[in-house]
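Contributing new records

If you add data, match the layout below exactly. Sequence lines come first and carry their own label; structure lines follow with theirs. Keep one chain per record. Anything else will be rejected by the validation script.
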Amino acid sequence: MKNLLAIMKREFGYIFSNRRLLIIIFIIPIFYTLLFGYLYINHLVTGMKTAIIDQNKTQLSRSIIEGFDKNDKFALVKTLDSPSQIKEHMENGTIDVAIVIPKDFATDVMSSEEAPILIIVNGSNMIISNSVTVNALGIIQTYSTGIAANKLQATSGVPFEQAVNQVNPISIRIRPWYNPTYNYTNFLLLGLIATAIQQVSLLYVAVSFAREKDRGTLSELNALGGNAFTKVMGKILPYFTINLAALTVSLLIARYLYKVPFRGSITALIFLSILFIFCIDALGVFLSLICSNELEATQIAMLVAIPSFLFSGFTWPIQAMPIPCQALAKILPLTYFTQAIRKIDIMGLSWLHLQQEIFVLIIMTLVLLPAAILTYKFKYAKLTAADNAININ
């Protein structure tokens, strides 16, 4: 026991003397708890972008629309003239939900015929589709019960409470596009693959230059010749090649072993994959160059990678996040790649609908790659063997 306490005392001394280590093992879990709790602070998905197609245009249909408008789960952003317009707006990301009130809706309700309201939802995000189903059903049942009770009370004179128990005249038909069976593998697996590729890529690229510094071999690297661009690309390309191969095999496994559908352009998927991995590798090299040693580079890479999946919007919709979390999501490369891979694989969209993701990933790469090159050029390119020895000591 005495020896055990002595070892514990020594280790506690090391931990408390290493401020970065103390922060990582004690402060970071608390920080992530606060951050992830804030991400889900709204508890429910709200503000789902909703389009209305009112083919009935009666007081009753307007009352139903008002019910959706007053519910904070739905945000009425479009009024469309025809159901044929839904596909275009859903593919562009303008809407998540479309509510279609049929032409004979009011007549069917008054004549005690079934009066279904069609709700079309983007099923590629199951969080949204499940939320739409639950909340739309609640709204429609409220109106349906009230209408049925009033009709029965007027015709038979039964008390309102008793009338509530009668058959409801309004029903809804949910039609989830792109993932009609609510397949959880289709929803989640692609995002997990992208996250895994980012995790391993960022982790190992981030120590590529830091490892040279720790081992005192930067002068050897400089002796190989070439400018700063050559050095940075020489570090990136091996990891890039392996990461791209791993991503390709993972997507093939998802497609042929787990039967995740692929409905889009293979060319677009390959291009987006190349762009994403190159962007992540450029970020990793930049972190490697600005960190003082291998341990610090590893720690920073992990701190960046861990929250990315939750903030990417792949599971929890970005519009349901608090504003600061939305801002964080928009600076993460994973956000744009997971959105793109869902659009290509699950929704089967073309290049036309991937312009934003392509543009942002290109801009990020054009910022990170020159930043890494300039950092190497001005900080490490002229490092001599003597300087390196001093730096290591």
